[in-house]
Each structure stands twice: as C-alpha cells, then as structure tokens.
Write a structure and sequence with these properties.
There is one protein chain. With 518 residues, this protein is an alpha/beta fold. It contains 16 helices and 28 strands. Helices cover 29% and strands 25% of the residues.
C-alpha cells in the first residue's frame, strides 16, 4: 500500500510507526513479498509474549541461527522489546561450535532454520537448551509460528540488546556483553539514530535499505534494525548476487546499504553492458567496512557510483572512524577521522601515545561506554590500556587526524627484522586482471625468520601455472619495493572467506607452520 506522506505522522520507533501507520511497508523479503509495520510488529509481539510465557526474564539470552527472512527480523524485535540478550549465530559453524555459544551465553531459547537442521539438532542436544524453535521443520523443535498467541504487546517491556561474539579465528569466540539500559523499547536509542547520523542518514526521508549480507553479522543486523526503527523500508537478499543487487537497487530505488569490498570487486567484474543496464542514481550512501578495500577498487567504485561510497572502521566493542567519498579522494587509503564522542589513539608497546605518522597499535573508546568479554576477564584486560581498547590493528594518524591502517598485528610479517604489512601487498596484487582473490602471509625461513608467501585464487578460466606466477611477479615488481615482493606464489580454487568478506587467513597459514611456533 502506498502511503501519502502528508497523511502520515513521523514518530520514530518500530512500534510507534506500527501503531500510527500500520500499512507502511517495513520489509521486502528475498522472494519479493512485502510486510507492513503492522504485520511485522504483530509477529514480534506474539513471539515476545511466547518467550515471556516460557518464563524468560529481562537479562536472559536467546540464540538465533536463521537465514535472512522476515522471521529473523520479527524474532529479533520480539527479544529486543522483552529485555533479552540476542545472539545471532553464524550458520556456517558446526554443531559443537554452536553448542559452545549456546552454553557460554546461557541461552534459554534457540531458534534455527531447517536449512541448518543437522548443526542445530547437534548443538541443541549437546548444550541441553530447553526452548527449541524452528523456521521450517526440524525434528524435536517447535515451529516458531506456534510461539505465543495474539498480537498484543508483551506485559513486561524493556529494551534488550545484542550479545555479540567475536569471530573466534584464534581460539574460542568471546561474547561482548554490555549492561542493558532499561530503556523504553518504543524509543529509538540515541546511539542508533546518532550512528546513522554519522553517515547523514535521517529518519524517514524516503530511505530504502538493501541488505545483501547474512544477518548474523553485527553491522548487517544493526543496519537493518536501525533502518526499520527510523521508518526506512528494508529489502532483504537471501544469497548475494551482484547483478541481482543492481536490479533491486533499480526496482526499489535503494538509497543506502552496508557492503564489503569483496562485493565491490564482484560488482566491478560484471561486464560493462550489464552494469549500465541498471539505474543506481537513487543511491545516497553506500557504506563499507569489515575488511580493507584495495585503493584501485575504491577508486573505480567512486567513478561508477559517485561520492556516495563511505567507509568506516569500527569495533563490536564500540568506537570508530568514518570517511566520505569526497574526503577519501583527498586522503586515499584512510579510514577516516573519529566519530563524534569517539576517541582514537595510536599507542606503542609501552602504552605511550606515538607521534603522528608513526605506526603502532590502534586503540579506541566510545564516549563513556564499557563492555566485557563474557566469562573472559583476562581477554578484557589484555585488550585495554586504561579506558581504551584495541582490536589488534596497526595504523597511524596523520596531521589532520585521519587514521590509516597498515594491518592486523597478528598478520604482520617480520622478515630480517623488517615489519611488512600483507594488506598493502594484497591491495596491489588484487588489481591484476587474472587474480580473483589473494592472501599474503609469512612462512618460515631459516635465516630471515619469515618470508612472504602469496596464495592466489585465479579468475574463472585462468590456469594456475608457472607462466601465471611469472606474470604476477612481474606485475608486483612494478608496484612494490623489493623487500615487499612475495618469494613464492601458491594457488587455491577458492580462498576461505565468510560471506561478509573476512578472510580466514590462519587456515591458509597454519599448514606452513605445522610443527613450528607461530
């Protein structure tokens, strides 16, 4: 139903919009079905009443292992309005890995899609979680549609929040658990509207958000939830496809999204005539983060889409930087300046602040907010210097306060006593027309300690052979100093990345270090 803007009120907040303008479209699912604010809130209310009927209290935790769907969004808002911690679990995890999160988060309810039935059953049985619900049919699980009755709001309503788990690429994942605010769930949290304000995204304003990444990712889920809270229509994709995204942008007049550099790379790989078929003039701000973006890829996206490509660097734990397309063209390679009320500093190993231009470990803080890694006081303390925390990234600040990232400290190569940052090498070699993806890391060397190894995923139809290696190395010599050149190149059919573009580099690196200390 099309709504006359002049007739509708403009009160923000999911349930306020649902009450005042129930026929406004909130969400378009991956099959093209439209769901109104009234329909989505009715489902969220029913599930919320059902969770409270099971005895769940504010501060309890629920885990969802769901594909992108209206069910996921409705369950999220159900848990949010009843004061629960919400854990969105990566559905690529195995049963035992999911069981660990169920137990560590002390989950009282678990909802899973039948797509992931084997892992869900294994996890539920191992963890012993009591409340088990399914989208689709999973043996031993109650269909989610049977949770709760009626569409009235739950009796006890207080704002919950996400309990976020780090990726766990170096050991068990750790939950980031913030104290609940006790706020009214009908009110848009100031942190949410303020976060969107950083990117110039205002309430209503005819905004349409497209979500092409799995909603188990922290930022992806945040962007969808906040968009709905601010009265924006959300278009969900199930599995991301570059041409389909362009078609949806054209059809729904999409204005904003949260993307990753891998998606940019695949969009740019489309034939020119395909890219030109679709109208992307509606785009206002296409935000990316999560992984480094090669400079040439960023330049080409800015040439195609215009200065709507905005980058940010942030942490699950809080705080960050942002840079617009216009700024980036003046400061290529930067991830921007700190957000309002966010502090960003570069510290040495001794905890002292380093001079401008000198690389060190990047530390942040967001206002007066705090967090702790659930059940892991040691990790919480090791990531802090005073009231600042670090993700382990290496970078430097320039004279204008712009942050430039070099690499993860754990990924840095030390060869012959020289610090080498793989991200710089990857950013150059990914621009080779026959390279689809690349990972660079250190491998053992008897004299230098480490030497540089590149693992390349060739483009479709390209044969990995000595001739390709020579071509890549010649390309590298034109762009990189001698000490940054890979000493050898191996090939892989596909590099191990999650759907949000994060490279699981340790899976590639570990076999080379087997039997040695990393």
């Amino acid at each position: 139903m099309t709504v006359d803007d002049k007739a509708e009120t403009r009160t923000g907040g999911f349930w306020n919009i649902a009450a005042e303008n129930p026929d406004r479209i909130a969400l378009v699912d991956p099959f093209g079905a439209e769901f109104t604010y009234g329909e989505l809130s009715a489902a969220a209310n029913r599930y919320g009443r059902g969770l409270q009927g099971m005895g769940l209290q504010p501060g309890d935790s629920v885990v969802m292992m769901l594909h992108n769907s209206v069910d996921l969004v409705a369950f999220y808002f159900a848990a949010f309005q009843t004061g629960l911690y919400i854990v969105a679990v990566n559905w690529h995890l195995t049963g035992p890995e999911v069981a660990y999160i169920l137990k560590d988060s002390e989950a009282k309810a678990f909802v899973a899609s039948d797509r992931f039935a084997d892992a869900a059953v294994s996890a539920a049985d191992e963890s012993g979680v009591a409340g088990r619900f399914s989208v689709g049919v999973i043996e031993g699980f109650t269909p989610l549609e049977g949770l709760g009755e009626g569409s009235e709001r739950p009796e006890v309503r207080t704002a919950g929040g996400p309990m976020l788990y780090t990726s766990g690429t170096t050991g068990k994942p750790k939950g980031v658990r913030r104290p609940l605010t006790g706020a009214d769930p009908d009110q848009v949290p100031l942190a949410s509207s303020g976060f969107f304000g950083i990117f110039g995204i205002r309430p209503f304003d005819d905004h349409v958000h497209i979500c092409g990444s799995p909603l188990y990712h922290t930022a992806v889920l945040n962007f969808v939830a906040i968009s709905i809270q601010l009265g924006h229509k959300v278009v969900l994709m199930d599995r991301w496809d570059p041409e389909e995204m362009l078609a949806l942008i054209d059809r729904h007049r999409v204005t904003h999204s949260h993307m990753v550099p891998t998606q940019f790379h695949r969009l740019l790989a489309l034939p020119e005539d395909v890219r030109q078929k679709y109208d992307v003039s509606s785009l206002r701000v296409m935000i990316h983060g999560a992984a480094p973006c090669p400079l040439e890829v960023k330049r080409r996206m800015l040439e195609w889409w215009g200065p709507v490509v905005t980058e940010y660097y942030a942490a699950t734990e809080g705080g960050g930087t942002v840079i617009s397309g216009e700024e980036w063209l003046r400061k290529p390679g930067s991830v921007g300046r700190s957000w309002p009320n966010s502090v960003v500093k570069v510290l040495g190993d001794d905890g002292a602040e380093l001079p401008l231009g000198e690389p060190g470990q990047v530390y942040m803080r967001m206002g007066g907010s705090s967090f702790e890694y659930h059940h892991d006081k040691k990790k919480t303390e090791s990531a802090r210097v005073g009231d600042l925390f670090t993700l382990g990234d290496i970078g430097y600040l320039d004279e204008d306060g712009y942050l430039f990232l070099c690499d993860r400290k754990s990924d840095m190569i030390i060869s012959g006593g020289v610090n080498i940052y793989p991200a710089e090498i990857e950013g150059e070699l990914i621009t080779h027309p026959k390279v689809a993806d690349i990972a660079v890391f250190g491998v053992p060397h008897v004299d230098w300690g480490e030497e540089i190894k590149a693992v390349v995923q060739p483009e479709v139809g390209i044969e990995p052979n000595d001739a390709l290696t020579q071509e890549i190395m010649a390309f590298a010599r034109e762009r990189l100093a001698k000490f940054k050149l890979p000493k050898s190149v191996d090939y892989s059919v596909e590099l191990p990345r999650d759907p949000n573009g994060k490279l699981y580099k340790r899976r590639l690196r570990d076999p080379y270090w087997q039997g040695r200390q990393i």
